Amino acid sequence: MRYFAIMVVWFAVLIGDGIVFPALTGWPSGFGIMVLLSALAITFGIHRWLIGLGIILAGLTELILGTYFGIIIGAWLVITRVWHLLNQFLNLKPMSENDSLIAFAPATLCGLGLFSLGEGVSWVIIRFAYESELPATTLINILRSPAIISIVGIELLITLFVFRFIYFSRNA
After folding, report:
1. pTM score of the predicted model
2. Within the chain, which residues score under 50 in pLDDT?
3. Is residue 165 classed exposed, middle or buried when 0-12, 13-18 and 19+ CB atoms within 10 A define those classes?
């Protein structure tokens, strides 16, 4: 049941981020998979099943979107490693173990940080493996854009809320 629900949320994020949200707002799209992967790490913590599922979802997204192979998968692996190291030093609890709604604020901030890390890693992979002429201003413009940060923040809150609703300890 857990895997099926995550796959449904992944599909909804692909459709919502790629078609619905840009059509309603006119803002850019394509950031939903990094948001979903960040929300997965924040919600469940880092476990082997989650890393494997994230690799599968990232690989399917690469195939569907037609991106360079390994960009999203590489970003996911770096996100999981950094989140694991942060949890080692800061002793953060996953959202699935936290019953407080106040935890959404720091979780969203952590998610924005993980999203920024994922975009940075994606840029590095593209720059050094595929397009050596890719300027750094591309990454800077993505991370400085208020529209993109707003989109990511909204998508992250929605995704965290959906995961919290599905996997709340009383509903499990």
Report:
1. 0.85
2. 171-172
3. exposed
